[in-house]
Records
---
Amino acid sequence: TIDDLGKILHAVLTGVTASYGLRFNRAALLLLDETGEILVGRMGIGEVVETRARAVWKNDDAQGLDNFARYLEWIVQQTERAEQLTTVGRRVSRMTLPVGGDDAFSEVIRKGKCQRIEPDQLSRVPAVFRQELKVKSTLAIAPLVAKREVMGILVADNKITETPIGSDDLDSLMAFAATAAIALENKQLLDQTRSGSETLLSFYAANSELTKIDDPRQILQASVDQTLAASGASWVSILLIDELGRVSNPIAVGRAFVPQGQELVRPNGISMQVMGSGQAIPIEDVSKSRDRVN
């Protein structure tokens, strides 16, 4: 079914394409994945073939969907996934596009500024997007920006009517892109809050269980097991280190971790730095700190 975020994003795209909105023929949302290196198609509205597009528009008018209040009633009742409602939506939802190159999508993400791509510049648009949606007319691309962070792009065109896209259209498109970005940011904050609450409850339960154990070794083992389950980490370990930097009785769980005795701690490694300072040190990318990890 269409979730609340899906309904909000669909409403944004409808505002971009509807007769009571910006009146673009087609619109699509593509969002950056968690690595920031891939654009993933999230949702789209519109058609690829003109006869199909005009038939859809006629049907929408017959249902009264050219009225925003009626549209809101309609979207609430939808049970089909929003990205599956139109041809553009179905095709966009299958797209994954790399970013970081010199194409127009990557440039908009890199600069955080809207761009208008004229027909003679369409070679700058990623080939998959261009070919799947049969892009031939001027394309408008707006970044989704929240708190100075680009989260994706909103793309629109007038393939069917070939109506020119002016500067005012670009400014209006940016406003709709900002609305989508705020919706996405709020959803992320809500997910983080829910995840944090669930993790906190899990730790409370884990601590309650620890009070029932007398054997120190069992307490350490239970702590590792429960931390792994609560955190969702790949592995968790506890290393007991004496004042000479010697490791005793390492306890570890997780497939990615294999204890190796004294090699677990390096004299100039992060573990000894934590021991000396008493301060936690987060490691965002282990592959960039392999000479200092442990």
---
Amino acid sequence: SFGFINQQCKEVEYYKWDFGDGQFLKQIDTKGSPKKTIEHTYDCAGIYNTKLYGYSSYDNVQGEKEGKECGSDSLTKQITILPVPELKELDDIKVCKNTKIDKVVLADLDVCEYDWFDSESMTCKKTDVCALLGKKVAHKFDVTVTGDDIGLQLTYGITYENLTEIPEFTAVNEDNVEKRARICITPYNEDGCIGQPMCYDIIVYPSAKITDPQDYKYCHDNKTNIAGFKANITGVTFEWEVKDGDWAAIGMTSNSGTGNLPNFTAKNTTKAPIIVTISVRGNSVNCEGDDSE
């Protein structure tokens, strides 16, 4: 809202407000001044040339006779209404542990296209306001982080005022379940108008680890009874490969495979033990696991 105060002529009887957007308001007030505050709602942000006309007689504006004493006058004021800042949406980030997360420069998230008043058509049009004004719409950012500790170099649960970036970091997760942190960014414009917070999650999946690996010892012509592989999380697929030793000599039919290690009839026609080392890797739906022997 804005207002003009008459300080020149005590006999102004008629006022007309031109709000610069095609809307007008007429007032008749014999006390010599218009209402001190006139409220008007604009449909969109923009630059508006508002004008207040004052007439010493109501008849003057009707064109029927000359006004009394002061005649007529007008005052013009330019009003700039900045848009409430908005931020580009960021998708949730889903990574495995030990993944490097790049920094986020908050100014790069500023949306520049807004509804802006076009004085020629007297309508609101999508406009690149950053280019028009030569500056960003969002000038300040508050940031909060909540959720699980995933390695972010920010303190959880507090609000960082006027932060410029989310720093890069390496995601961590030593647990057997996914970890999730939420980052919320609130933009402000230079006049302190607050935009809606934009939030996104960073989800860090655990890596699959083989649990309870066992060594097996068999005699010649014994049938093996090898237990299935186990992992620290569910939904794991296994890949195995012979890393060392004569696998064919002990009766194995393959030196690699997926799933559990198949049972076979152990063989050894030599006079010394034959040792075969097998490497197993567990892969979850989201992340590749570590090797275990």
